[in-house]
Amino acid sequence: MLAALRLRNRLHTGGAVQATTTMNIVVCVKHVPDATADRRFESDNTVDRVGVDGLLSELDEYAVEQALQIKEKLGDDSEVTALCIGPEGAVDAVRKALQMGADKGVIVTDEAIAGSDAPATSLVLAEAIKKIGTPDLVVCGMASTDAGMSVVPAMLAERLGLPQVTFASVIETQGDQIRVKRDGDAATEVIGATLPVVLSVTDQTGEARYPSFKGIMAAKKKPLDTWALGDLGVDAGQVGLSVAWSEVEETTARPPRTAGEIVKDEDGSGAQALAGFLASKKFI
Amino acid sequence: MAEILVLVDHVDGAVKKPTLELLTIARRLGEPSAVFIGSGDAPAEALAKFGAEKVYAVDDAQIKGYLVAPKAEVLQQLVEKTSAGAVLIPSSAEGKEIAARLAIKIDSGLITDAVDVQAGPVTTQSVFAGSYTVQAKVTKGTPIITVKPNSAAPEEAAGAGAVEAFAPTISDAAKAAQIVASQPRQSTGRPELTEAAIVVSGGRGTGGDFSAVEALADSLGAAVGASRAAVDSGWKPHTFQVGQTGKTVSPQLYVANGISGAIQHRAGMQTSKTIVAVNKDEEAPIFELVDFGVVGDLHTVLPALTEEINKRK
Ligand SMILES: Cc1cc2nc3c(=O)[nH]c(=O)nc-3n(C[C@H](O)[C@H](O)[C@H](O)COP(=O)(O)OP(=O)(O)OC[C@H]3O[C@@H](n4cnc5c(N)ncnc54)[C@H](O)[C@@H]3O)c2cc1C
Ligand SMILES: Nc1ncnc2c1ncn2[C@@H]1O[C@H](COP(=O)(O)O)[C@@H](O)[C@H]1O
């Protein structure tokens, strides 16, 4: 049996003995610039994470929701830890996860991390996950809404030596087994694996809950740790902009679109006008 | 010249168009070597026609039942064997994950979702829902680049197409995530959404009746797309969804019908070359993006347009 999965017997009122499974779940939450604000780059071509309002990446709310649902199915002994790598202010993303119902929070923040690329981010996440303890389940969003590479979960799986069960739209766990539905490019697939795994979830998994007033109050008393690279034994020289494995050389704001022609469809003239436009562009 | 590994995307040996685009791009960087993972004979001729000098044929018996990880091991072993100059992979969900695992395995930088790659290699990406273009390059190891469909026009160039069987070693760990069941996507008979030159999409404004959208698509030889609202309503499967959590498309022409133009939808279509919209609300944000817009009811505008197109053919 898996070391990471603790099966134990528990006595319930009434004397019946029932097997319960508890899980140690880590959910990775990223703090991102608000997509509805004017996102921009700094002079060193890194994303401006300070001058633009940030928030818990919307797609990671689905990850928190699924982590909480899995915990709720198992019972209260399971623990959900929300983990974020980012500047100090990124702690807001962890707080939001705590308000939604996560039990503990960890933020890894260090000057040296600024400008890290996905390989470095996944390194810090992997080391933080090891420090949190042997997880049964690492839950991620399908993509961060800023960089949106959709690569960190696969990198984490590689670094932790775990199977990846990614882009899940439906999730089922039973004992130490997990099965998910994944809308692949060529097929819809059911992926199965034995815990522990890295799971990433899509927005098809269902709406994420809003923090309740009670949840917001309770979150204030939940443990929230702040770690630096030193706490993880990660050398500052392994992360950050200067050692990134790829480099942005230039960023250009797209020129504003020149206003297009808009016509009102009166007496069927709209279709004619549109056909004329498409013909002028050689589409018909 | 260094070998440039191109991971071949195919369905039962039929090579998909984005692979031909990758071979075309690979020629700018070095000597294209196609990596075919499949069963049966490698489609060497089709690959050679677009410049593949070598075709590594990898039997997929140990690979096809598992998710992503075995393919990353194949590429790792081929990179080591060939000292490849770069690895090009189609930018699909699976392709990006293969690239991600490969990057960690071979300690190399990776760039995803390139829309152009030039010698260097220097890549161009479109970020923040298309509001910025970014030029980047890999600074460590063997550049791994995932490239979006429609990033180059496939150009024919006779390559030797020498087939070389390659037998990878797949670890047990890579077989830990199994594909337990698979339901292949039904062919719609229309071009594939991400590859199509023209995409005609429908949103909540269709009211669930996509027939006018589909008829227009067929008159233009286009793929059909949908907004999340249309997908969430169950009118189209999720594979039709265009946007942040669906497909990103970058066709020559995008026609949005009954779609308001929410930021998440824009993220998936904003880089289309020409954008057209039909919407009955003249305040709809989609009109900020269009080259041509019609304020009107799609249920009358689209059938009239389709008729006009068919007449002009
Ligand atoms: C995390 C997250 C991810 C998301 N990802 C995506 C995504 O990938 N793709 C996506 O599309 N959305 C996505 N969304 C949803 C997005 O925010 C919008 O809700 C969605 O795009 C709206 O779809 P719509 O334009 O079809 O519907 P609406 O916004 O309701 O717009 C319908 C439009 O149709 C027009 N209309 C109505 N009747 C007619 C008629 N008869 N003729 C002509 N016009 C008519 C109306 O004027 C209106 O403008 C996401 C949301 C979230 C929170
Ligand atoms: N800095 C970060 N802190 C915590 N989690 C992250 C971070 N970056 C990425 N992730 C996780 O990885 C997922 C995919 O990110 P990405 O590969 O950047 O698209 C996100 O949805 C998060 O769950």
SSE blueprint and pairings:
The complex is a heterodimer of chains A (284) and B (313).
Chain A: E1 6-11, E2 17-22, E3 24-28, E4 31-33, E5 54-56, H1 58-74, E6 79-85, H2 91-100, E7 104-108, H3 118-132, E8 137-141, H4 152-160, E9 164-174, E10 177-183, E11 187-194, E12 197-201, H5 213-219, E13 224-227, H6 229-232, E14 246-253, E15 261-264, H7 269-280
Chain B: E1 3-7, E2 10-11, E3 14-15, H1 17-29, E4 31-38, H2 44-48, E5 54-59, H3 69-82, E6 86-90, H4 93-105, E7 110-118, E8 122-127, E9 132-138, E10 144-147, E11 162-165, E12 178-184, E13 198-202, H5 211-220, E14 223-226, H6 228-232, E15 253-257, H7 263-266, E16 274-279, E17 292-295, H8 298-312
Parallel strand pairs in B: 1-4, 1-6, 4-5, 5-11, 6-10, 7-10, 13-14, 13-15, 15-16, 16-17
Antiparallel strand pairs in B: 2-3, 7-8, 8-9
The complex binds flavin-adenine dinucleotide and adenosine monophosphate (AMP).
Adenosine monophosphate binds at residues 28-30, 57, 59-60, 63, 83-86, 118, 121, 125, 140-141, 143-144, 147-153 of chain A.
Please provide a written account of the structure.
The complex is a heterodimer of chains A (284) and B (313). Chain A is an alpha/beta fold. In chain A, 26% of the residues lie in helices and 31% in strands. In chain A, β10 (177-183) and β11 form a beta hairpin. In chain A, α3 packs across α4 (152-160). Residues 1-19 of chain A have low confidence and may be disordered. By secondary structure, chain B is of the alpha/beta class. Chain B is 25% helix and 28% strand. In chain B, α3 (69-82) packs across α4 (93-105) and α5 (211-220) packs parallel to α8. In chain B, 59% of the residues are buried. The chains are: A alpha/beta (284), B alpha/beta (313). At the A-B interface, α3, α4, β9, β10 and β11 of A face α4, β7, β8, β9 and β12 of B. β14 of chain A pairs antiparallel with β9 (132-138) of chain B.
